[in-house]
């Protein structure tokens, strides 16, 4: 078993990464000093697949768990959905020592984390990601939130988990299209700070647990250096300025990983146009996306709508849109002065 420790300003938490880790959750949580009532927040897709082994593990360790199933999909990641959870926690008599456990992908983790941050002004939170995308990205770093009609994750809070449990075995039930979408975040981490990971993806020769370990450690290094996204942590948004806009304009029919994949290609093209990285690097990124059967051509949305969606994104700074652009594989930087004309040129050049 790999245990990756994550430090943050108020403490630290372990990430347990091993095959079969789901069945050891109760034991790990009890070792942290928790007992009694707890809540599992999941959805109608993941719950029937993975909730029972988790419930059994918790009961065996002395917990009294309740299971709360949400509707599945980004379109339900709203304040209305979150508001519906609080009365159920009150009815179950959860107190300030009662953990809220997220069992699902990034949408479930974001909502459960926001509930944990706000219920009784904060209760313990546990992340059990069940998608590749959530394992390598959303479950680490303490960011939670919900969407507004104007954009993604515009309401939220930082809430560090007590622990994260990653069980590669649960990915066996993940649809292939969702697994591929998760690979976009792995590619992103390779571009940011893991050339060996990027090369392994190119070669198609890797062990899944190794891939998870390498990708997660990139995220850990970045969030430890900048826990509240005041500076360098912004590099984790590589591909997201474009990607979130694509998602929003698609009314979230485009998967997050698919939006990120197209965003990575756009960011690379923009970097080459501005002279920040070579054309060969951009071609290498696009070639890998193509190899992984990920999209890399931007949808044909009106540019005015794209530009407006970028400005509604929480990553803007004042009247400028912030872009994370690659310089090379394993080296990215933050750019605030990118012109509308340059962005238009990238989107118009399909």
Characteristic terms for this protein:
single chain; 45% helix; alpha/beta; Dehydroquinate synthase-like, alpha domain; Rossmann fold; globular; 7-stranded mixed sheet; 11 strands; two-stranded antiparallel ribbon
Structural account:
By secondary structure, the protein is α/β, with parallel strands linked by helices. It folds into two domains: 2-173, 3-Layer(aba) Sandwich (Rossmann fold), CATH 3.40.50.1970; 176-348, Dehydroquinate synthase-like - alpha domain (Dehydroquinate synthase-like, alpha domain, Up-down Bundle). 45% of the residues lie in helices and 20% in strands. It contains 14 helices and eleven strands. It has a seven-stranded mixed sheet with strand order 1-2-9-6-5-3-4, with helices on both faces. The chain has a two-stranded antiparallel sheet with strand order 7-8. The mean pLDDT is 94.
Question: SSE layout and pairings?
Answer:
Elements: E1 2-8, E2 11-17, H1 25-31, E3 36-43, H2 46-60, E4 63-70, H3 79-83, H4 86-91, E5 100-104, H5 106-118, E6 125-129, H6 132-138, E7 143-148, E8 151-158, E9 163-166, H7 176-193, H8 195-203, H9 208-225, H10 240-249, H11 256-273, H12 279-291, H13 303-312, E10 323-328, E11 331-335, H14 340-348
Parallel strand pairs: 2-9, 3-4, 3-5, 5-6, 6-9
Antiparallel strand pairs: 1-2, 7-8, 10-11
């Amino acid at each position: 078993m790999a245990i990756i420790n994550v430090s943050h300003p108020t403490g630290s938490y372990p990430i347990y990464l091993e095959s079969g880790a789901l069945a050891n959750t109760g034991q790990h949580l009890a070792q942290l000093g928790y007992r009694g009532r707890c809540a599992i927040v999941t959805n109608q897709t993941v719950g029937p697949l993975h909730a029972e082994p988790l419930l059994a593990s918790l009961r065996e360790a002395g917990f009294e768990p309740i299971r709360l199933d949400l509707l599945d999909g980004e379109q339900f990641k709203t304040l209305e959905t979150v508001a519906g959870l609080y009365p159920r926690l009150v009815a179950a008599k959860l107190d300030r020592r009662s953990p809220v456990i997220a069992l699902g992908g990034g949408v479930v983790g974001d909502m459960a984390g926001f509930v944990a941050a706000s219920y009784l002004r904060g209760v313990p939170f546990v992340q059990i990601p069940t998608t590749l995308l959530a394992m390598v990205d959303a479950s680490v770093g303490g960011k939670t939130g919900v969407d507004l009609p104007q954009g993604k994750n515009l309401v939220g809070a930082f809430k560090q988990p007590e622990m994260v449990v990653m069980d590669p075995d649960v990915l066996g039930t993940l649809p292939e299209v969702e697994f591929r979408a998760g690979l976009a975040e792995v590619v992103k981490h390779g571009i940011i700070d893991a050339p060996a990971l990027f090369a392994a993806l190119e070669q198609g020769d890797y062990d899944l647990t190794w891939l998870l370990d390498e990708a997660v450690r990139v995220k850990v290094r970045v969030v430890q250096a900048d826990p509240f996204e005041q500076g360098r942590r912004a590099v984790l948004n590589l591909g997201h300025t474009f990607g979130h806009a694509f998602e929003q304009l698609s009314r979230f029919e485009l998967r997050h990983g698919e939006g990120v994949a197209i965003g990575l290609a756009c960011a690379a093209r923009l970097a080459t146009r501005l002279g920040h990285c070579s054309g060969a690097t951009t071609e290498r990124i696009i070639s890998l996306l193509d190899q992984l059967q990920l999209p890399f051509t931007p949808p044909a949305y009106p540019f005015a709508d794209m530009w407006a969606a970028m400005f509604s994104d929480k990553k803007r700074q004042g009247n400028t849109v912030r872009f994370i652009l690659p310089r090379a594989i394993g080296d990215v930087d933050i750019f605030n002065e990118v012109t509308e004309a340059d962005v238009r040129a990238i989107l118009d050049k399909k």
